[in-house]
């Protein structure tokens, strides 16, 4: 295992250079030599498997420099350059010195950085799916349709719709590039149920509803479509749509500690004498768990004034485009720090930066929205920099500096020792969280196995669940995959679907008890509305029209009903109600 708690260490070369040429009184650093490789004791500890053993690193040395008495350490300078493997060119270094001495240039307010994403519709040629595509396009939202048959999709959706061909039942067809940029998903893929006696070319019998024909499964089985297909689709989009609890970059996750390749990057690179390190404390966290510690001594001697830790460039760029910012869990010391994110591999390049204040002696969570990051190069705002791209993050940096931006100074800067414990860094989804994955399931999915239910009074799909390949059982299992995925979701369970227009009054319910009918057009509108509603997030609900089967519903084109505010329905939904609460502990094995 690579040693990740790296730090700058003074060397014999540096101290000899200091004694002879710079400052005869400057003491050599006593930092342990961990910058390039761990000491023998640390190597031994790294060989153990437990978390505590891995993090109980013995630091026998310390940062012993005193403000005003340090000297430039040439050896530490070389080690810094060697560790990051990307030194600035001599010409850039000279240019930097000239610019630094010439004073700050005037700056303009930084551009606001926004991000957008694509809405994926899986099953886009189905009765609900094509209507979902239409609703999204009318709203001017970027739509991508996942279809199995491109020719059929072009006929139904038009020549200008963004199509990708894939089959959720066949994982190999779900190429990662097809889901690049996807931020929200509406899944209306469903097993095909049709009349045993056959149907018309335009599926007229099917459109009437299962209540009016003897059904059978057409094509792939419910297990393959509703369960395995759901698993494949979730795996394909999970990275792009994000997780409710965020993505951990550094810190504990599922009882494992995720590390980053930190190294010290101090003002030694420009002739300064400040010195810092990054180390692990196995019990220094807020609740007695492990934490990293950024600590050191900062000095303004030799025109310096900053210390920092920076990661090596990631082997593969970190894609955080599904999230809205970075959150740090740390114990403050009353100072102001900078957090810097780079999206290029170059050593000397624009860093997208945010400053944050800390409260002394208190553990706190600091959120840094991506939209607040300023493009900074050598402490100056770059007004024509490209927008921050969270999909291509190459390195992270944490800095304590005398300097802010554009000639301003850090108001809380004090020379001397500092210490900042950091137990966790993660990408987060901003509040209020809205669904990222809306799935159209079916009313009745919990009823085949429900004790005491009168099946004779239930819809055909409930009565014939076994004959139809356990279609509702597998739909329920597919729902469970979504609920367990960590993706913010909404699960819509329509009653019998019809070709009637939208506009009838609706009943929303939970617990899987209602029967009736509802328009496909209405369900499409509900799905799109759910994507934007925090009230719908992580909710499962059934929907039906107040119009009974015995009556048809029509709309006067000259006097259409007003558009619904679906939030009025969503806001009454409750967490944790799925209908599974009424099932026996041992449902039918599948």
TrEMBL record:
Record-annotated NADH:ubiquinone oxidoreductase intermediate-associated protein domain positions: 261-422
Gene3D superfamilies: Galactose-binding lectin, NAD(P)-binding Rossmann-like Domain
Domain NAD(P)-binding stretches: 123-238, 435-534
Signal peptide stretch: none
Pfam families (UniProt xref): CIA30, NAD_binding_10
Organism superkingdom: Eukaryota
The name this protein goes by in its record: Protein HIGH CHLOROPHYLL FLUORESCENCE PHENOTYPE 173, chloroplastic
Organism expressing this protein natively: Rhodamnia argentea
């Amino acid at each position: 295992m690579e040693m990740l708690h790296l730090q700058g260490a003074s060397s014999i070369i540096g101290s000899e250079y200091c004694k002879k040429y710079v400052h005869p009184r400057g003491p050599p650093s006593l930092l342990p030599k961990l910058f390039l490789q761990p000491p023998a004791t640390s190597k031994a500890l790294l060989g153990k498997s437990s978390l505590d053993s891995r993090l109980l690193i013995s630091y026998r040395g310390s940062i012993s420099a005193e403000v005003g008495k340090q000297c430039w350490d040439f050896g530490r300078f070389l080690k810094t350059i060697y560790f990051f493997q990307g030194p600035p060119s001599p010409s850039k270094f000279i240019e930097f010195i000239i610019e630094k001495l010439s004073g700050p240039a005037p700056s303009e307010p930084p551009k606001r950085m926004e991000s957008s994403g694509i809405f994926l519709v899986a099953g886009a040629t189905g009765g609900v799916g094509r209507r979902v595509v239409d609703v999204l396009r009318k709203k001017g939202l970027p739509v991508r349709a996942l279809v199995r048959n491109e020719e059929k999709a072009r006929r139904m959706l038009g020549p200008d719709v963004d199509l990708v061909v894939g089959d959720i039942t066949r994982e190999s067809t779900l190429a990662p590039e097809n889901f690049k940029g996807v931020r929200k998903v509406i899944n209306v893929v469903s097993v095909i149920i049709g009349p045993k006696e056959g149907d018309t070319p335009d599926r007229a019998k099917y459109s009437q509803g299962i209540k009016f024909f003897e059904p059978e499964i057409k094509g792939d089985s419910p297990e393959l479509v509703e369960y395995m297909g759901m698993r494949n689709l979730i795996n394909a989009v999970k990275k792009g749509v994000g997780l409710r609890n965020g993505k951990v970059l550094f810190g504990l996750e599922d009882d494992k500690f995720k590390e980053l390749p930190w190294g010290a990057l101090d003002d030694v690179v420009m002739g300064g004498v400040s010195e810092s390190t990054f180390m692990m404390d196995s019990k220094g966290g807020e609740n007695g768990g492990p934490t990293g510690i950024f600590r050191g001594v900062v000095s303004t001697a030799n025109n310096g004034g900053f210390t920092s830790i920076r990661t090596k460039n990631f082997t593969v760029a970190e894609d955080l485009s599904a999230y809205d910012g970075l959150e740090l869990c740390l114990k403050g010391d009353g100072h102001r720090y900078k957090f810097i994110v780079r999206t290029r591999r170059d050593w000397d390049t624009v860093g997208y930066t945010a400053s944050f204040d800390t409260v002394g002696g208190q553990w706190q969570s600091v959120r840094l929205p991506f939209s607040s990051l300023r493009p900074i190069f050598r402490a100056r705002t770059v007004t024509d920099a490209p927008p921050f791209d969270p999909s291509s993050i190459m390195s992270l940096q944490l800095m304590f500096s005398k300097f802010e931006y554009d000639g301003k100074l850090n108001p809380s800067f004090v020379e001397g020792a500092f210490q900042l414990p950091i137990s966790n860094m993660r990408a987060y989804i901003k509040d209020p969280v809205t669904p990222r994955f809306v799935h159209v399931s079916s009313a009745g999915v919990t009823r085949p196995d429900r004790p005491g239910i009168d099946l004779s009074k239930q819809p055909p799909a409930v009565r014939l669940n076994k004959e139809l390949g356990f279609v509702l059982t597998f739909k329920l299992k597919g729902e469970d995959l979504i609920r367990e995925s960590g993706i913010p979701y909404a699960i819509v369970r329509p009653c019998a679907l019809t070709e009637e227009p939208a506009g009838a009054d609706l009943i929303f319910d939970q617990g899987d008890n209602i029967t009736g009918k509802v328009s496909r057009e209405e369900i499409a509108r509900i799905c799109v509305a759910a994507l934007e509603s925090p009230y719908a997030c992580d909710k499962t609900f059934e929907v039906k029209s107040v119009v009974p089967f015995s009556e048809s519903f029509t709309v006067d084109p000259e006097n259409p009903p007003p558009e619904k505010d679906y939030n009025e329905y969503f806001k009454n939904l409750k967490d944790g109600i799925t209908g599974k609460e009424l099932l026996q502990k041992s449902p039918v094995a599948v």
